Amino acid sequence: MKRAEVPPTDPLIYRFYELVQVYGTTWKELIEEEFGDGIMSAIDFDMTMERQPDQKGDRVKIAMSGKFLGYKTY
Known about the structure:
This protein is of the alpha+beta class.
């Protein structure tokens, strides 16, 4: 299995990497504000993608839905 490059060299995958670098901490704060301390599951996870026509060029709409997993203390 080929190991993923960091940062990615594929332009499309790099944009996802860039989104997490720029907005990751904001997304984390918003999730914690709404749900409390925890994470969004990447196992119990759904994603949808659709094309949105736009006069300036079609847009890509991606919606991600992951189960919220609150941190547990033992």
